[in-house]
Write a structure and sequence with these properties.
386 residues; alpha+beta; three-stranded antiparallel sheet; 8 helices; 13 strands; binds zinc ion
Length: 386
Protein backbone atom coordinates (compact mmCIF):
# COMPACT_ATOMS: atom_id res chain seq x y z
CA UNK A 1 0.00 0.00 0.00
CA UNK A 2 1.34 3.34 -0.94
CA UNK A 3 1.11 5.90 1.77
CA UNK A 4 1.44 9.61 1.60
CA UNK A 5 1.52 12.02 4.42
CA UNK A 6 1.60 15.61 3.59
CA UNK A 7 2.13 19.02 4.89
CA UNK A 8 -0.54 21.54 5.42
CA UNK A 9 -1.12 23.63 2.37
CA UNK A 10 -1.63 27.27 3.32
CA UNK A 11 -5.13 27.69 4.55
CA UNK A 12 -7.31 28.26 1.59
CA UNK A 13 -5.49 28.43 -1.59
CA UNK A 14 -5.15 24.87 -2.55
CA UNK A 15 -6.12 24.31 -6.09
CA UNK A 16 -5.00 26.73 -8.62
CA UNK A 17 -2.31 28.44 -6.61
CA UNK A 18 1.16 28.57 -8.03
CA UNK A 19 2.27 25.37 -6.37
CA UNK A 20 -0.89 23.53 -7.04
CA UNK A 21 -1.40 24.15 -10.68
CA UNK A 22 1.21 22.70 -12.92
CA UNK A 23 -1.00 23.31 -15.88
CA UNK A 24 -1.08 27.06 -15.70
CA UNK A 25 -2.21 28.29 -19.09
CA UNK A 26 -0.12 31.46 -18.89
CA UNK A 27 3.16 29.99 -20.02
CA UNK A 28 2.70 26.83 -21.97
CA UNK A 29 6.11 27.11 -23.64
CA UNK A 30 7.97 27.54 -20.38
CA UNK A 31 6.97 24.08 -19.23
CA UNK A 32 9.49 21.50 -20.25
CA UNK A 33 7.43 18.52 -19.18
CA UNK A 34 3.80 18.23 -18.36
CA UNK A 35 3.40 16.99 -14.85
CA UNK A 36 0.77 14.48 -13.99
CA UNK A 37 -2.36 16.33 -12.93
CA UNK A 38 -2.77 16.40 -9.19
CA UNK A 39 -5.70 14.89 -7.45
CA UNK A 40 -7.57 16.78 -4.77
CA UNK A 41 -6.42 14.49 -1.97
CA UNK A 42 -2.86 15.59 -2.70
CA UNK A 43 -3.70 19.20 -1.88
CA UNK A 44 -6.15 18.50 0.93
CA UNK A 45 -5.40 21.15 3.57
CA UNK A 46 -6.29 19.08 6.67
CA UNK A 47 -3.88 16.88 8.63
CA UNK A 48 -4.81 13.57 7.05
CA UNK A 49 -3.09 10.58 5.56
CA UNK A 50 -4.24 9.08 2.31
CA UNK A 51 -3.54 5.66 0.84
CA UNK A 52 -4.43 3.90 -2.40
CA UNK A 53 -4.53 7.09 -4.40
CA UNK A 54 -7.00 8.81 -2.09
CA UNK A 55 -9.38 5.90 -1.59
CA UNK A 56 -8.35 5.48 2.04
CA UNK A 57 -8.45 8.47 4.36
CA UNK A 58 -7.20 8.52 7.94
CA UNK A 59 -5.89 10.91 10.56
CA UNK A 60 -2.19 11.62 10.33
CA UNK A 61 -1.32 9.93 13.63
CA UNK A 62 -2.04 6.25 13.20
CA UNK A 63 0.33 4.60 15.70
CA UNK A 64 -2.40 3.75 18.20
CA UNK A 65 -4.60 2.43 15.40
CA UNK A 66 -1.93 -0.13 14.45
CA UNK A 67 -1.63 -1.04 18.13
CA UNK A 68 -5.41 -1.69 18.22
CA UNK A 69 -5.19 -3.89 15.13
CA UNK A 70 -2.18 -5.77 16.52
CA UNK A 71 -3.86 -6.33 19.88
CA UNK A 72 -7.00 -7.79 18.27
CA UNK A 73 -5.15 -9.87 15.70
CA UNK A 74 -2.57 -11.29 18.14
CA UNK A 75 -5.12 -12.11 20.84
CA UNK A 76 -7.47 -13.78 18.33
CA UNK A 77 -4.51 -15.53 16.68
CA UNK A 78 -3.51 -17.06 20.02
CA UNK A 79 -7.11 -18.07 20.61
CA UNK A 80 -7.47 -19.78 17.22
CA UNK A 81 -4.07 -21.42 17.58
CA UNK A 82 -4.23 -22.73 21.13
CA UNK A 83 -7.75 -22.70 22.59
CA UNK A 84 -9.96 -23.31 19.59
CA UNK A 85 -8.66 -26.78 18.62
CA UNK A 86 -9.06 -28.06 22.19
CA UNK A 87 -12.54 -26.57 22.67
CA UNK A 88 -13.75 -27.67 19.22
CA UNK A 89 -12.86 -31.28 20.05
CA UNK A 90 -13.80 -31.35 23.72
CA UNK A 91 -16.73 -28.92 23.84
CA UNK A 92 -18.42 -28.01 20.55
CA UNK A 93 -17.35 -27.29 16.97
CA UNK A 94 -19.46 -24.13 17.10
CA UNK A 95 -16.67 -22.35 19.02
CA UNK A 96 -14.39 -21.69 16.01
CA UNK A 97 -17.36 -20.71 13.84
CA UNK A 98 -18.60 -18.11 16.33
CA UNK A 99 -15.01 -16.92 16.86
CA UNK A 100 -14.37 -16.41 13.16
CA UNK A 101 -17.66 -14.60 12.57
CA UNK A 102 -17.05 -12.23 15.48
CA UNK A 103 -13.43 -11.61 14.47
CA UNK A 104 -14.27 -10.86 10.82
CA UNK A 105 -17.17 -8.58 11.77
CA UNK A 106 -15.08 -6.68 14.32
CA UNK A 107 -12.17 -6.17 11.93
CA UNK A 108 -14.35 -5.07 9.03
CA UNK A 109 -16.22 -2.50 11.09
CA UNK A 110 -12.92 -1.24 12.50
CA UNK A 111 -11.36 -0.84 9.06
CA UNK A 112 -14.51 0.76 7.69
CA UNK A 113 -14.42 3.32 10.52
CA UNK A 114 -10.72 3.99 10.16
CA UNK A 115 -10.41 4.20 6.39
CA UNK A 116 -13.39 6.35 5.54
CA UNK A 117 -14.15 10.03 5.39
CA UNK A 118 -15.89 10.79 8.70
CA UNK A 119 -17.82 13.67 7.12
CA UNK A 120 -15.19 16.34 6.51
CA UNK A 121 -16.60 19.64 5.28
CA UNK A 122 -14.46 21.18 2.53
CA UNK A 123 -12.93 24.53 3.38
CA UNK A 124 -14.19 27.64 1.64
CA UNK A 125 -12.49 28.61 -1.59
CA UNK A 126 -10.98 32.12 -1.60
CA UNK A 127 -14.07 33.42 -3.40
CA UNK A 128 -16.42 31.82 -0.95
CA UNK A 129 -14.37 33.07 2.01
CA UNK A 130 -14.36 36.62 0.64
CA UNK A 131 -18.10 36.40 0.15
CA UNK A 132 -18.67 35.36 3.76
CA UNK A 133 -16.32 38.08 5.01
CA UNK A 134 -18.37 40.65 3.11
CA UNK A 135 -21.56 39.39 4.69
CA UNK A 136 -20.03 39.49 8.15
CA UNK A 137 -18.88 43.03 7.57
CA UNK A 138 -22.27 44.46 6.65
CA UNK A 139 -24.04 44.08 10.00
CA UNK A 140 -20.96 45.49 11.61
CA UNK A 141 -21.31 48.94 10.17
CA UNK A 142 -18.07 50.65 9.19
CA UNK A 143 -15.32 48.13 9.45
CA UNK A 144 -12.37 49.35 11.44
CA UNK A 145 -9.10 49.07 9.58
CA UNK A 146 -7.45 47.13 12.36
CA UNK A 147 -9.53 44.71 14.35
CA UNK A 148 -13.12 43.97 13.60
CA UNK A 149 -15.12 42.48 16.45
CA UNK A 150 -17.34 40.17 14.51
CA UNK A 151 -20.79 38.85 14.99
CA UNK A 152 -19.35 35.61 13.75
CA UNK A 153 -22.32 33.67 14.77
CA UNK A 154 -25.57 32.81 13.13
CA UNK A 155 -28.68 31.37 14.59
CA UNK A 156 -30.98 28.80 13.16
CA UNK A 157 -34.04 27.16 14.55
CA UNK A 158 -34.26 23.39 14.51
CA UNK A 159 -37.48 21.86 15.77
CA UNK A 160 -38.18 24.93 17.86
CA UNK A 161 -34.73 25.03 19.43
CA UNK A 162 -32.46 27.97 18.61
CA UNK A 163 -29.01 26.81 17.62
CA UNK A 164 -25.91 28.91 17.17
CA UNK A 165 -23.68 28.33 14.21
CA UNK A 166 -20.12 29.37 14.86
CA UNK A 167 -17.69 30.64 12.32
CA UNK A 168 -14.62 28.47 11.78
CA UNK A 169 -11.57 30.67 11.28
CA UNK A 170 -9.58 27.82 9.79
CA UNK A 171 -12.14 26.54 7.30
CA UNK A 172 -13.65 30.01 6.72
CA UNK A 173 -17.19 28.73 6.94
CA UNK A 174 -20.09 28.85 9.35
CA UNK A 175 -20.20 25.35 10.71
CA UNK A 176 -23.48 23.61 10.08
CA UNK A 177 -25.38 22.43 13.15
CA UNK A 178 -23.66 19.60 15.06
CA UNK A 179 -20.40 20.07 13.18
CA UNK A 180 -17.15 20.79 14.96
CA UNK A 181 -13.54 21.36 14.06
CA UNK A 182 -11.22 18.48 14.97
CA UNK A 183 -8.01 20.03 16.24
CA UNK A 184 -6.04 16.86 15.49
CA UNK A 185 -7.13 16.42 11.88
CA UNK A 186 -7.67 20.16 11.33
CA UNK A 187 -10.99 19.68 9.57
CA UNK A 188 -14.57 20.60 10.30
CA UNK A 189 -16.53 17.36 10.57
CA UNK A 190 -20.28 16.94 10.20
CA UNK A 191 -22.12 15.57 13.24
CA UNK A 192 -18.76 15.41 14.97
CA UNK A 193 -18.68 12.81 17.71
CA UNK A 194 -15.04 12.71 18.79
CA UNK A 195 -11.56 12.04 17.48
CA UNK A 196 -10.65 8.44 18.27
CA UNK A 197 -6.92 7.63 18.21
CA UNK A 198 -7.72 3.92 18.66
CA UNK A 199 -9.36 3.82 15.25
CA UNK A 200 -7.02 6.48 13.85
CA UNK A 201 -9.77 8.72 12.57
CA UNK A 202 -12.45 11.19 13.53
CA UNK A 203 -15.82 9.70 14.29
CA UNK A 204 -18.55 11.70 12.63
CA UNK A 205 -21.65 11.58 10.53
CA UNK A 206 -20.34 9.19 7.89
CA UNK A 207 -18.66 6.57 10.08
CA UNK A 208 -20.43 6.70 13.44
CA UNK A 209 -22.61 3.66 12.77
CA UNK A 210 -19.55 1.56 11.89
CA UNK A 211 -17.77 2.82 14.98
CA UNK A 212 -20.74 1.85 17.13
CA UNK A 213 -20.91 -1.60 15.50
CA UNK A 214 -17.18 -1.97 16.09
CA UNK A 215 -17.47 -1.16 19.79
CA UNK A 216 -20.42 -3.54 20.22
CA UNK A 217 -18.80 -6.43 18.35
CA UNK A 218 -15.49 -5.86 20.12
CA UNK A 219 -17.23 -6.06 23.48
CA UNK A 220 -18.91 -9.28 22.39
CA UNK A 221 -15.64 -10.70 21.05
CA UNK A 222 -13.85 -9.84 24.27
CA UNK A 223 -16.49 -11.50 26.48
CA UNK A 224 -16.57 -14.54 24.17
CA UNK A 225 -12.77 -14.96 24.20
CA UNK A 226 -12.59 -14.53 27.95
CA UNK A 227 -15.34 -17.10 28.54
CA UNK A 228 -13.73 -19.61 26.15
CA UNK A 229 -10.26 -19.19 27.62
CA UNK A 230 -11.48 -19.64 31.19
CA UNK A 231 -13.49 -22.72 30.11
CA UNK A 232 -10.39 -24.10 28.42
CA UNK A 233 -8.24 -23.68 31.54
CA UNK A 234 -10.93 -25.17 33.80
CA UNK A 235 -11.42 -28.20 31.52
CA UNK A 236 -7.70 -28.84 31.48
CA UNK A 237 -7.40 -28.39 35.23
CA UNK A 238 -10.02 -31.10 35.77
CA UNK A 239 -7.58 -33.57 34.24
CA UNK A 240 -4.50 -32.22 35.97
CA UNK A 241 -4.24 -29.52 38.63
CA UNK A 242 -4.81 -25.80 37.97
CA UNK A 243 -1.15 -24.81 37.82
CA UNK A 244 -0.35 -27.62 35.43
CA UNK A 245 -3.26 -26.60 33.23
CA UNK A 246 -1.86 -23.10 33.00
CA UNK A 247 1.58 -24.46 32.18
CA UNK A 248 0.09 -26.59 29.42
CA UNK A 249 -1.50 -23.58 27.77
CA UNK A 250 0.42 -20.40 28.58
CA UNK A 251 -1.18 -18.59 25.62
CA UNK A 252 -4.56 -18.93 27.32
CA UNK A 253 -3.23 -17.16 30.39
CA UNK A 254 -1.97 -14.28 28.27
CA UNK A 255 -5.31 -14.00 26.45
CA UNK A 256 -7.20 -14.10 29.74
CA UNK A 257 -5.08 -11.23 31.09
CA UNK A 258 -5.55 -9.10 27.94
CA UNK A 259 -9.31 -9.74 27.86
CA UNK A 260 -9.74 -9.17 31.57
CA UNK A 261 -8.10 -5.76 31.47
CA UNK A 262 -9.74 -4.53 28.29
CA UNK A 263 -13.25 -5.89 28.65
CA UNK A 264 -14.35 -3.39 31.33
CA UNK A 265 -13.48 -0.28 29.40
CA UNK A 266 -14.92 -1.72 26.19
CA UNK A 267 -18.18 -2.68 27.91
CA UNK A 268 -18.37 0.78 29.47
CA UNK A 269 -17.81 2.41 26.09
CA UNK A 270 -20.41 0.18 24.45
CA UNK A 271 -22.92 1.15 27.15
CA UNK A 272 -22.13 4.85 26.77
CA UNK A 273 -22.55 4.81 22.99
CA UNK A 274 -25.74 2.81 23.32
CA UNK A 275 -27.07 5.58 25.55
CA UNK A 276 -25.96 8.21 23.01
CA UNK A 277 -27.52 6.30 20.12
CA UNK A 278 -30.84 5.78 21.87
CA UNK A 279 -31.01 9.48 22.68
CA UNK A 280 -29.58 10.66 19.31
CA UNK A 281 -26.74 12.64 20.86
CA UNK A 282 -23.06 12.88 20.07
CA UNK A 283 -20.20 12.48 22.57
CA UNK A 284 -19.39 16.12 21.90
CA UNK A 285 -22.90 17.26 22.85
CA UNK A 286 -23.04 14.99 25.87
CA UNK A 287 -19.72 16.24 27.27
CA UNK A 288 -20.74 19.85 26.82
CA UNK A 289 -24.22 19.20 28.13
CA UNK A 290 -25.70 20.87 25.07
CA UNK A 291 -29.15 19.48 25.75
CA UNK A 292 -28.92 19.29 29.52
CA UNK A 293 -31.87 20.63 31.47
CA UNK A 294 -29.34 22.47 33.65
CA UNK A 295 -29.07 24.98 30.84
CA UNK A 296 -32.69 25.88 31.25
CA UNK A 297 -36.04 24.22 31.38
CA UNK A 298 -36.68 24.86 27.72
CA UNK A 299 -33.48 23.15 26.67
CA UNK A 300 -34.04 19.86 24.91
CA UNK A 301 -32.45 17.82 22.19
CA UNK A 302 -34.10 18.91 18.93
CA UNK A 303 -32.66 15.95 17.07
CA UNK A 304 -34.33 13.31 19.18
CA UNK A 305 -36.93 11.47 17.16
CA UNK A 306 -39.03 10.96 20.23
CA UNK A 307 -38.29 7.36 21.08
CA UNK A 308 -35.45 4.92 21.66
CA UNK A 309 -36.23 2.78 18.62
CA UNK A 310 -36.72 5.77 16.34
CA UNK A 311 -33.43 7.28 17.50
CA UNK A 312 -31.54 4.04 16.93
CA UNK A 313 -33.09 3.77 13.51
CA UNK A 314 -32.17 7.36 12.64
CA UNK A 315 -28.56 6.99 13.82
CA UNK A 316 -27.83 3.48 12.58
CA UNK A 317 -30.09 2.93 9.60
CA UNK A 318 -30.56 6.39 8.09
CA UNK A 319 -29.27 6.98 4.57
CA UNK A 320 -25.49 7.34 4.25
CA UNK A 321 -24.55 10.63 2.74
CA UNK A 322 -21.86 10.75 0.09
CA UNK A 323 -18.49 12.28 0.95
CA UNK A 324 -18.28 16.02 0.39
CA UNK A 325 -14.62 15.68 -0.49
CA UNK A 326 -14.06 14.82 -4.09
CA UNK A 327 -10.77 13.20 -3.03
CA UNK A 328 -9.94 11.54 -6.31
CA UNK A 329 -11.11 14.38 -8.50
CA UNK A 330 -8.49 16.27 -10.49
CA UNK A 331 -7.31 19.65 -9.32
CA UNK A 332 -8.47 22.17 -11.86
CA UNK A 333 -5.98 24.67 -13.21
CA UNK A 334 -8.01 27.69 -12.22
CA UNK A 335 -9.86 28.12 -9.00
CA UNK A 336 -13.39 28.91 -9.95
CA UNK A 337 -16.42 29.09 -7.74
CA UNK A 338 -17.43 25.76 -9.23
CA UNK A 339 -14.23 24.18 -7.98
CA UNK A 340 -16.11 22.22 -5.43
CA UNK A 341 -19.52 20.86 -5.94
CA UNK A 342 -20.64 22.72 -2.86
CA UNK A 343 -22.58 25.92 -3.02
CA UNK A 344 -23.38 28.64 -0.61
CA UNK A 345 -26.96 29.53 0.13
CA UNK A 346 -26.18 33.20 0.40
CA UNK A 347 -25.76 33.15 4.15
CA UNK A 348 -22.31 31.67 4.35
CA UNK A 349 -23.61 28.30 5.43
CA UNK A 350 -22.60 25.59 3.08
CA UNK A 351 -25.24 23.62 1.37
CA UNK A 352 -24.27 20.14 0.66
CA UNK A 353 -25.67 17.01 2.02
CA UNK A 354 -26.78 18.45 5.28
CA UNK A 355 -30.32 17.95 4.27
CA UNK A 356 -32.36 21.04 4.83
CA UNK A 357 -30.19 23.69 6.35
CA UNK A 358 -32.48 26.41 7.60
CA UNK A 359 -32.47 29.29 5.23
CA UNK A 360 -33.72 32.00 7.53
CA UNK A 361 -30.39 32.52 9.24
CA UNK A 362 -29.76 35.91 10.71
CA UNK A 363 -27.09 37.31 12.90
CA UNK A 364 -29.26 38.42 15.74
CA UNK A 365 -32.59 36.86 15.76
CA UNK A 366 -35.22 36.88 18.46
CA UNK A 367 -36.77 33.50 19.04
CA UNK A 368 -37.92 32.80 15.56
CA UNK A 369 -41.03 31.01 14.61
CA UNK A 370 -40.19 27.54 13.54
CA UNK A 371 -41.41 28.12 10.08
CA UNK A 372 -39.79 25.27 8.38
CA UNK A 373 -41.00 21.79 8.80
CA UNK A 374 -38.98 19.31 10.73
CA UNK A 375 -36.99 18.07 7.86
CA UNK A 376 -33.60 18.36 9.54
CA UNK A 377 -32.01 14.95 9.58
CA UNK A 378 -28.81 16.01 11.27
CA UNK A 379 -27.65 19.29 12.85
CA UNK A 380 -26.66 20.82 16.30
CA UNK A 381 -25.43 23.76 18.20
CA UNK A 382 -22.42 25.00 20.06
CA UNK A 383 -19.26 23.84 18.76
CA UNK A 384 -15.91 23.90 20.48
CA UNK A 385 -13.50 26.39 19.15
CA UNK A 386 -10.97 25.16 16.73
ZN1 LIG B 1 -13.06 24.12 10.63
ZN1 LIG C 1 -9.85 14.05 13.98
Amino acid sequence: MKGRDYCVVPTVDPPGSASASPLSPSSPAAEPKKKMPQRKWEVHPGRNKFHCNGRIMMARQTGIFYFTVALIVVTCGLFFGFDCPYLAVNLTPAIPVIGIVLFVFTMSTLLRTSFSDPGVIPRATPDEAADIERQIEVPNGQPSPSYRPPPRQKEVVVNGQTIKLKYCFTCKIFRPPRASHCSICDNCVERFDHHCPWVGNCVGKRNYRYFYMFILSLALLCVFLFACVITHIIMRSQKANFLKAMQQSPASVLEAVVCFFSVWSILGLAGFHTYLTTSNQTTNEDIKGSWSSKRGRDNYNPYSQGGIVKNCFAVLCGPTTPSLLDRRGLVEPDPTPQQYTMQMNGTGVRLGNYGAIPTQTTTVQPPAQPQQETSEPSPNEEIPSS
